[in-house]
Amino acid sequence: MKKIGFIEAFSIGVGGMVGGGIFAVLGLTIDLAKGAAPISFAIAGIIALITAYSYAKLSVRYPSEGGTIEFIVQAFGNNLFSSSVNNLLLMSYVVMLSLYAFAFGSYGSALFTGHDVLWLHKLLAASVILFFVFINLFGAYLTGKTEDIMVFIKIAILILFIFVGLKTFHSEQLKPEYWTTPLSFITGGLIIFLAYEGFELIANAAKDVKDPSVLPKAFYASVIFVIILYVTIAIVTIGNVSFEVAKKASDYVLAIAAKPSLGEFGFILIGIAALLSTASAINATIYGAGRVGYLVAKLGEIPKNFEEKIKNGYEGMIIIGLLGVIFAISFNVENISIAGSLGFLIVFSLVNLANFKLHKETNSNRIIPFLGFLLTLIAAVILVGYNFVHNPSNLANAVIVIFIVFLFTYIYKKIEKHKLKRYLDKDLEEKEVSNQL
Question: pLDDT tens string for the chain (437 positions)?
């Protein structure tokens, strides 16, 4: 099987991050922070970069297909808690998968018909997930190459938006007198932190890269690149759209911001970028979630036997894909989106805590992962508080979904009577044993 290099790993990270997030949360961020929205994106990006530090250190020390869950097991043990975190991560991926597919269907329907046609919307949402499940069945190399192409095109469109948007740009609304209070724009940054979710998918590629030393480079480069991209997009958008318009058109404010310089063509161009962004996020999510998370949930490990690994891995991607389809076409995904966001924040805080605990093993500065742990925990608390005030029913649904995940894990483990292995990845186990001899 062909191995992937830095470009493919970088593309998986960027593809996972620049999904539906920037299109969905830009309007909300501008509404919360006004002229300070670029600062909000920078704050969220710094938290993501700190968390990427933990992922980079842990990925080099424990290069494993298990990715995030391998790190949790090494830090907290192969117990019910780690199994619950694995299933929480799987649930979060399914929710995000359905959100990306829902956004793909929404933009696709609008581009093809001029408005949202429900049957076409759902057909496109289901089709895009099934298409990328099929692509992922061919292995990491084709997945990585597909991601390269989509990431290149969508980033090219967003950079074009930035350059043409600067021609009609007015800086008035970026002045400090148009900023909200520091508490508001900091809160805005913490709430939209999940716009950076996706860089962690690089960890699942640890066994597929030619050289593990490219992993830290891919983590840092992808997050820094996306920080610069998001901040610049926020600046250009504020320079082209009034705060009132941004609030009214919060779901498609980026397309509105392209109109002053590109007219209707700008709306179409941004729509294409949205389709590619959500598609590449779906591709990266299926690659990272379907194969590994399911193997861990079902077998308690990642089997070394190639045939068993492939069979169960394919089975996992298909099941995760089908669950994503069901969620995307059957539920109001806004009602469950908070569960996905909260799930990822909990997992990210635990990965930072894992690196803090294993700092001697990973040769890490303890201050950085501890800071990451506190910031992601605070972000989770703020997300809960914000939705308690503004979307209490959605928050209640999120709590129910997360509770069901933990309850299911407990019952399943009691019935099956097996637990996670000490090392999820057999190659990692052999490496650790040989190092101890």
Answer: 567 788 888 888 887 788 666 776 787 788 888 999 999 999 999 999 999 999 999 998 888 878 888 999 999 998 999 999 988 988 888 888 888 888 788 778 877 886 667 888 889 989 999 988 887 777 656 666 676 787 788 888 888 889 888 888 888 889 989 888 887 888 878 777 778 888 888 887 777 777 778 889 999 999 999 999 999 999 999 998 888 888 776 666 787 888 888 888 887 888 888 888 888 778 777 766 666 777 787 777 777 765 566 666 677 788 888 888 988 888 766 666 778 888 888 999 999 999 999 999 999 999 999 999 999 999 889 888 888 888 888 888 888 888 998 998 889 888 877 778 888 878 788 888 887 76
Is 193 part of any domain?
A: yes
Residue 432 lies in a domain: no
Predicted TM-score (pTM) of this structure: 0.86
First to last CA, the chain: 30
Instruction: Phi first, then psi: give them for residue 357, nearest 5 degrees.
Output: -70, -35
Q: What type of residue is 392?
A: P
- Give phi and psi for 425, each to the nearest 5: -105, 120
Which 8-state DSSP code applies to residue 115?
A: S
User: What sign for the dihedral angle of Cα 201, 205, 209, 211?
Assistant: positive
Residues 420 and 82 sit within 8 Å (Cβ to Cβ): yes
For 38, residues 6+ apart whose C-beta sits below 8 A from its C-beta are: 174, 231, 232, 234, 235, 238
Q: How many CA atoms lie within 13 A of 211 on its CB side?
A: 8
Query: Do residues 428 and 62 make contact, with C-beta atoms less than 8 angstroms apart?
Result: yes
Domain presence at residue 1: no
Q: Locate 120 and state its tokens.
A: 């076409």
CA distance 8 to 150: 12
In terms of residues, how long is the chain?
437
Q: How far apart are CA 42 and CA 314, in angstroms?
A: 38
* CATH number of the domain encompassing residue 333: 1.20.1740.10
The answer to the question of residue 289 being in a domain is yes
Count Cβ neighbours within 10 Å for each residue of 225-234 and write b for 16 or more, e otherwise: bbbebbbbbb
**How many independent structural domains does the chain possess?**
1
Cα distance between residue 274 and residue 107, in whole Å: 7
Domain that holds residue 92: 6-427
**Number of Cβ within a 10 Å radius of residue 162:** 16
